[in-house]
Structures are given as C-alpha cells and as structure tokens.
C-alpha cells in the first residue's frame, strides 16, 4: 500500500532509539524526509546513518537537542527551515518520568513531568498546526502510554501528565483544523522490547533477586500476544496514522499493547 506521504517532511522526537527510532525508520521507508531529534548525539548520529543507508532517497537530518526546552525546539525547526521544508508530520515523544510513590514527589517533580510529557507536545502542536492547516495536510502523532487507559500506580507522574495531554488533544483535534486536513492522534504503547524495558527489568531484578530472564518470561506471559512488541511494529502503526488513508481518524487513542488492556472500550 502506498501511504501517499512520499516527499513530505517529518519531525520525530526521541528518535535515537526505541519507539521514536521505529517511527523514524518507518516514515523514511515511506519516502518521508525526517528530522530526528534526541539528546544523545552519538546514538542519534548512528541511528540517522542507519536510516540513510536503508533509505538513500530521503533526507535525514539529525539534531542533538533537548526538545523539552525552547532552545531545543528552535534547533529542531531551524534544521529544516529551507524552502519546501515545513513539517507536514510531527511525532512527539519524550522519555517518561521516573516511577515512585506520589508521597515523595514535590512541586518540582510534577512540573518537570508536565513540562516534558504535556507542555512540550502542546508547544510542538502550536508551532506547526496552523501551517499544516493552511497547506491542507498535517499529521501529528503523540507517543504517550498505555497507562493513559490503564493507570499504573507507581507511574503517577506519567499518568497525570500524559492524561492532561490526552484531554487537550481530544479538544483541539476536533476543532476547525479537522476540516483542513489535519489530524492529531495519540499512540499508546504497552510493553515494547526497548532499552526502557531492559532498564526496568534490571531494576526489578536487583530489587527482587529474580533473574532478568525470569522476569521477562513472567511479563510476557501476561500479554495475550505472548511477547513484547517490536519497535518496528510500533513504527508501522505510526506511519499508517500519518498516511493519506488515515485522514478520517483524529482525536483517537490508538493502543498497541498485544491485547494486555482487558477492557472492552
């Protein structure tokens, strides 16, 4: 299937590894020019080089910056500021805040979580959505979390900040931009085989004394699909949401969790 987005420009955040990288690869595979943003320069440059090798006909620009800061956003937009390089696609993504007990979090911890996982995506939407509407095409995909639908008690900071973004998107996606060819959707990952899962398992192993592989087995046994997701699968869903074919989908929360969420709705 031709997604109809070849030659367009995408901004993909948190793109050096994991789910963000999966999205960048999938979009480049559809012929989309990609500006990849992440804080770690070495990993980012390596990932960008891999995409260039796999998709030599597209432009891939790597920007080592913190997208949660005004300076980082300025750097990202400056990277593709030439004629014809306005962003048609924006994939927002920032690392989730740390787990813990809400009794231990103060105002600073909450503000940091809200800034990264709610306000930063809103700033990126604000900076791009009107241009998309004027051109008659736009796709914004926010990588959030399955915890938006099924909150995880130790992830209170993430539950709160990402739920705030979800509520905001529900309104703005259904505003006048919907009739101007612009869609905004949230993509909710469950457990994917990424560095974050590896770090979480390592921490759980150190705390419980159980081997990492046993913890992996236990977790995967709780997922109806019987395994973790792969970043490339996540990227493929993201690319579809950015496609011409997904023009009638907006304001949605698309859950990718191997069936782990037990609800009907």
Automatic annotation (TrEMBL):
SUPFAM superfamilies from the entry?
NAD(P)-binding Rossmann-fold domains (SSF51735)
CDD domains for this protein = BKR_like_SDR_like
Q: Which domain of life is it from?
A: Bacteria
Family membership, please give it.
Belongs to the short-chain dehydrogenases/reductases (SDR) family.
Q: What is the protein name stated in its UniProt record?
A: Short-chain dehydrogenase/reductase SDR
Q: Which organism is it from?
A: Hydrogenophaga taeniospiralis CCUG 15921
Supply the source organism's classification: Bacteria, Pseudomonadati, Pseudomonadota, Betaproteobacteria, Burkholderiales
């Amino acid at each position: 299937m031709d997604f109809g987005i070849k030659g367009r420009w995408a901004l993909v955040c948190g793109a050096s590894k994991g789910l963000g990288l999966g999205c960048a690869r999938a979009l480049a595979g559809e012929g989309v020019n990609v500006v990849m943003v992440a804080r770690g320069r070495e990993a980012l440059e390596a990932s960008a080089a891999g995409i260039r090798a796999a998709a030599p006909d597209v432009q891939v620009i790597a920007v080592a910056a913190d997208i949660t800061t005004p300076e980082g956003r300025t750097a990202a937009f400056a990277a593709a500021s030439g004629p014809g390089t306005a962003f048609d696609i924006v994939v927002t993504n920032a690392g989730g805040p740390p787990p813990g007990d809400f009794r231990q979090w103060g105002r600073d911890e909450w503000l940091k979580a809200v800034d990264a996982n709610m306000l930063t995506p809103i700033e990126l939407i604000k900076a791009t959505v009107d241009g998309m509407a004027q051109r008659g095409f736009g796709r914004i995909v926010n990588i959030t979390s399955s915890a938006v639908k099924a909150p995880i008690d130790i992830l209170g900071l993430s539950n709160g900040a990402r739920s705030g973004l979800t509520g905001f998107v529900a309104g703005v996606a259904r505003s006048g931009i919907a009739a101007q060819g612009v869609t905004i959707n949230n993509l909710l990952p469950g457990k994917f085989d990424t560095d974050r899962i590896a770090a979480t398992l390592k921490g759980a192993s150190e705390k419980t004394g159980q081997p990492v592989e046993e913890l992996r087995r236990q977790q995967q046994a709780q997922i109806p699909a019987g395994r973790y997701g792969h970043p490339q699968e996540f990227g493929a869903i993201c690319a579809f949401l950015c496609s011409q074919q997904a023009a009638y989908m907006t304001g949605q929360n698309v859950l990718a969790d191997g069936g782990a969420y037990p609800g009907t709705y």
